Amino acid sequence: MKNIVVFTGAGISAESGLSTFRDSNGLWKKYKIEDVATFGAFIKNPRLVLNFYNLRRKQLLKVEPNIAHISLNELQYKFNLTIVTQNIDDLHERSGTKNVIHLHGKLTESKSIIDNKIYDIVGGELNVGDYCKKGGQLRPNVVWFGEAVPNMDLAIEVVRKASILIIIGTSLQVYPAATIIDYAINAERIILVDTNPSIYKGIEVFKGKATEIIPDLVRGLLS
Ligand code: OAD
């Protein structure tokens, strides 16, 4: 079986109703990264940071995977499919994808600041005073700016073996995640699907909405 890797960003979840980061109505237009998405911000104002992620989690509970998430799963029958996502939502998993690597963590998990142990978040909220068993404050298990990306090596390994790399809905502006494309050294095809594609050179570009393009693209790959 051929290996297909799909690399996704916020654009694939946009039509489910989750905001992207850098589009005109994106999250980084409303919030400053340095206020809500760094460890320093968490130390300075933990309430503000936890509330930001509590809001994201609340919103996530209200939305569903869309046809782009769902139709990618058909690839699982004919190919070894791995989804490498920058998204902290769980819409790939909820759509039925078995093999998902999260580069930037998961909104549904917390992590102790003393030993980095990971827990599921029960009840949807994380607040100041929510401690692990050892007494360490819990923070969201997301990768903040300036932090290492623990799954990067794993993602590189699968991308190296990919025959086809499909990139969906990402501005490719955040590093090291954006370097993923450089590791697709064995790929016969590199495909980018985006409403506002950031690169064109040497790859196949489909300009448009993920929900409109992915079902046909998947059908083509299966035929
Ligand atoms: P961005 O907001 O930077 O980019 C979203 C991309 O999706 C853009 O290229 C849009 O053109 C495209 N897009 C929007 N709607 C779309 C649709 N319906 N169909 C297809 N494409 C669409 O989001 P990311 O690239 O995912 O990290 O951002 C990367 C990282 O930056 C995030 O994981 C997050 C953020 O800061 C951290 O917080 C560490």
Describe the secondary-structure layout.
Elements: E1 3-8, H1 11-14, H2 27-30, H3 33-36, H4 39-44, H5 46-62, H6 67-72, E2 80-85, H7 91-95, E3 100-102, E4 105-112, E5 118-120, E6 138-142, H8 152-160, E7 164-168, E8 189-194, E9 204-207, H9 210-222
Parallel strand pairs: 1-2, 1-7, 2-3, 7-8, 8-9
Antiparallel strand pairs: 4-5, 4-6
The protein binds 2'-O-acetyl adenosine-5-diphosphoribose.
Descriptive account of the structure:
With 223 residues, the chain is α/β, with parallel strands linked by helices. It has a 6-stranded parallel sheet with strand order 3-2-1-7-8-9, sandwiched between helices. A 3-stranded antiparallel sheet has the order 5-4-6. It has helices spanning 11-14, 27-30, 33-36, 39-44, 46-62, 67-72, 91-95, 152-160, 210-222, and strands at residues 3-8, 80-85, 100-102, 105-112, 118-120, 138-142, 164-168, 189-194, 204-207. It has a domain at 1-18 and 65-104 and 149-223: Rossmann fold (3-Layer(aba) Sandwich). The mean pLDDT is 96. It binds 2'-O-acetyl adenosine-5-diphosphoribose. The site of 2'-O-acetyl adenosine-5-diphosphoribose (OAD) has 26 residues, from helix 1 and strand 8.
